[in-house]
Amino acid sequence: MSQSYNRGTVEDFGRWRDFSAGMWAWIFHKFTGWVLVGYLFTHIAVLSTAIQGEALYNGTLQGLEALLVVRFLEVGLLAVAVFHILNGLRLLFVDLGIGLEAQDKSFYASMVLTGAIVVASIPTFLGGKLV
Amino acid sequence: MSTIEQETETEETTDESAEPTVESPGERRRAEKQERAQAREDQRVDEEIDHSEETITLKVFRYDPEVEGKEEPRFDDFTVPFHKGMTVLDALIYSRDHYDSSLTFRHSCRQAVCGSDALFINGRQRLACKTQIADLDAGTIRIEPLPHQEVVKDLVVDMEHFYDQMEAVEPYFDADELPDDELEEQRQDRENREKIKMSTRCIWCGACMSSCNIAAGDNEYLGPAAINKAYRFAMDEREGEQRKQERLRIIEQEHGVWRCQTQFSCTEVCPKDIPLTEHIQELKREAVKNNLKFW
């Protein structure tokens, strides 16, 4: 055996079409987790304008809410947070050893529920008048 | 045949026919048997020809670092006549025997017991001998060596690392106390046997390890098969508390059970349907309980 051939990373994410439910759940959980960590920083940054006084805080928030893209980002944030929560519950059950045979179904259920909640939230987020 | 005729003629006392036949009863039976076998064979060949209109195409990964012109990985196509009940391994054997004798793959028992022919078939780790071609929906069957293991040649991968991980959990029965009489059986009660039943089914094929995303990125991770092996012995009540503690010490290390992130890939691909994730999770809980000791 002189050498052997390594096929590289194409074996991993190059094969996303073949991923099963558990794998997708893991990817989405990681992704949403990182998004939430990222959001935490902007969240702190925006809220900390309150240190500089009422006017700046209100001005910042109103300014942000006036942007359509922020409204859409809020919907996205809700989707990410809801999925992370629901899949987190699923993982809790997995850790407790409950219903491991139904782990794919519980993943689909959390996806569907996330979708429903996001759709229901759209009027709230996008309905208000852009000032 | 004709040489026996003369010798057996003298023994022909039971023959009811008046004229002396040159054929002995044994001879006749053999002839009839041969005729029947011939008829069966003819029928089989006919059937094969009938069916050969239905063919399948194999797309097989080829790579041979030792032969010039074959160092570059490529895919070879083989057209194989399909017959009912044909497995992927049958098709591979057909290709090797009829088209290219250099096509290399491991196989042995052909009945999902030896665990040597785990391959990456149509994007999933499967045992070639257990995979019915009829069950694969795609017309073309793509056959590759197991991912995340280095390819030695064609479909043969280096299993050394997998075996190392398996050995790392000390996969053998080792009781704290042995019975005084050497021949005395060490009995296990039924419930305990049921508990470890699925985990004993492992055939060391390496499909789970190959499917595991974590094992791919962390070479030190024991992997599903090894942890399942550890489960099989740690949960065996006959081994005793002391041995169980030692086993838990091995699996609760940083690259032991805690690396599992419950992607369920291993459980999905296991050809013996071992609930690997469930076993890993149970060992995690066992390790936590063992270290907390609130009770």
UniProtKB/TrEMBL annotation, chain A:
One of its GO terms (biological process) is tricarboxylic acid cycle. The chain crosses the membrane at residues 31-51, 63-86, 106-126. Gene3D superfamilies: Fumarate reductase/succinate dehydrogenase, transmembrane subunit. GO terms for cellular component: membrane. CDD domains: SQR_TypeA_SdhC_like. It comes from the Archaea. InterPro entries: SdhC_prok, SQR/QFR_C/D, Succ_DH_cytb556, SuccDH_FuR_B_TM-su. GO terms for molecular function: electron transfer activity; metal ion binding. The keyword Transmembrane applies. Keywords: Heme, Iron, Membrane, Metal-binding, Transmembrane, Transmembrane helix. It is found in: Membrane. This is Succinate dehydrogenase, cytochrome b556 subunit.
UniProtKB/TrEMBL annotation, chain B:
Pathway: Carbohydrate metabolism; tricarboxylic acid cycle. Coiled coil: none annotated. Residues 57-163 form the Succinate dehydogenase/fumarate reductase N-terminal domain. The keyword Iron applies. The keyword Oxidoreductase applies. Keywords: 2Fe-2S, 4Fe-4S, Iron, Iron-sulfur, Metal-binding, Oxidoreductase. This is Succinate dehydrogenase and fumarate reductase iron-sulfur protein. Belongs to the succinate dehydrogenase/fumarate reductase iron-sulfur protein family. Residues 1-51 are annotated as: Disordered. Residues 1-18 have a biased composition (Acidic residues). Residues 25-43 have a biased composition (Basic and acidic residues). The lineage of its organism: Archaea, Methanobacteriati, Methanobacteriota, Stenosarchaea group, Halobacteria. It comes from the Archaea. Its cofactor is [4Fe-4S] cluster; [3Fe-4S] cluster; [2Fe-2S] cluster.
